[in-house]
Design a protein that fits this description.
The protein is about 25% helix and about 20% strand. It has about 200 residues and is α+β, with helices and mostly antiparallel strands. It has two domains: about 15-55, no CATH class; about 55-185, CobW-like, C-terminal domain (Hypothetical Protein Yjia, Chain: A,domain 2, 2-Layer Sandwich). It has a five-stranded antiparallel beta sheet with strand order 1-5-2-3-4. It is elongated. The mean pLDDT is about 85.
């Protein structure tokens, strides 16, 4: 939009006010004439290179109906390659089987925290009420695990969906881990959540 604008890098919005207030750097006439959107209008849409092509930006969705080994998944999302610039979605982790976890990553910032209980973790009367109100949940309901699942979107530069999928799949429970007691698996979380009733 403004090709000559100064770019100031910030962490969590912390910027020295001296670099943005009363700098005297803005010239309305110059800015109006050099705005990127004017160039786009003058050149026409047929000359436009989509950002997906110009910068190699792409996205894909990873889905799984098996829980993650919590520690493997936690370690993996904290070491995603730099070309993954954003990832977000709902994750199912074995040691937190009753909780849907919100995974959010933007650059080096990563968080994984409870967002709600899985419907399948609730009491039968609560499940029946929610499923009556939201019958679309039954379309993907699993007989054993109910609505538990993982769905994550990855956005980045020159992504390799097959590589990221293979790495994520390595974080899922193995067949032998599926048969074991999940509560004995290592869990890196320090937050405590009351169990669903």
């Amino acid at each position: 939009l403004q090709p000559k604008a100064n770019i100031i890098r910030a962490v969590k919005g912390e910027v020295d006010s001296k670099v943005i207030l009363n700098t005297g750097l803005f010239n309305f006439d110059e800015a109006s004439g050099s705005a990127g959107w004017i160039n786009e209008l003058n050149e026409g849409h047929h000359q436009h290179t989509p950002e997906t092509e110009e910068y190699g930006i792409s996205s894909f969705v990873y889905e799984a109906r098996r829980p993650f080994h919590t520690e493997r998944f936690y370690n993996w999302i904290h070491s995603l390659p730099e070309n993954v610039v954003r990832a977000k979605g709902i994750a199912w982790c074995a040691t937190r089987n009753s909780l849907a976890l919100l995974m959010s990553q933007a650059g080096p910032s990563v968080s994984l925290e409870p967002i709600s209980y899985w419907v399948a973790a609730l009491s039968k009367p609560e499940q029946e009420q929610i499923l009556r109100q939201n019958p679309e949940l039954l379309k993907e309901w699993n007989e054993e695990f109910g609505d538990r699942h993982t769905k994550l979107v990855f956005i980045g530069l020159d992504l390799s969906p097959s590589e990221i999928t293979a790495e994520a799949d390595r974080c899922l429970l193995t067949d032998s881990e599926m048969a074991d007691d999940w509560s004995l698996l290592s869990d890196p979380f320090d937050w405590q959540i009351e169990r669903a009733k």
